[in-house]
Amino acid sequence: MPTPELEQQLNLLGRRLSKPVRLHGSSGWTVLDRPAYQALWRIVEDGPLRPTTLAALIGVDLSVVSRQVKALEDVGFVTRSPDPADARAALVRATESGLDAFEQTRLQRTEVLDEVLAAWPAEDRANLVRLLTRFNHEIEAAIANRQAAITDE
Asked: What's this model's pTM, rounded to 2 decimal places?
């Protein structure tokens, strides 16, 4: 099994995906680092969210999410409001500008993927998605098992 080659290709993919993301908002182009973009993605898809929920969804510490949310607030892509269920907590939601910027960016990224995969047969594209989905589920389970084993020690 070519595990070192797989690791090399995954590292290469990770480096390419970690490049800053350019979003076009109402005030022009904004460049976000990949973690802030991922936070915006979850807020758009699952929001409004408490910062603690967002941290759990993206698997980072609350202090990291606080910085990401602050960066998104600074460019007008999210706002905070009191949580109606608990006034001590805040909910983070995407603004219209944040939604627009996110959708425009998603469209641009999808166009790039479509361009890359245009010459691939439909079966290859379907297999790529199927295998990546399987890989992601299984790697998440393997990591959770290792973390559980460490906790049990």
From this structure: 0.73
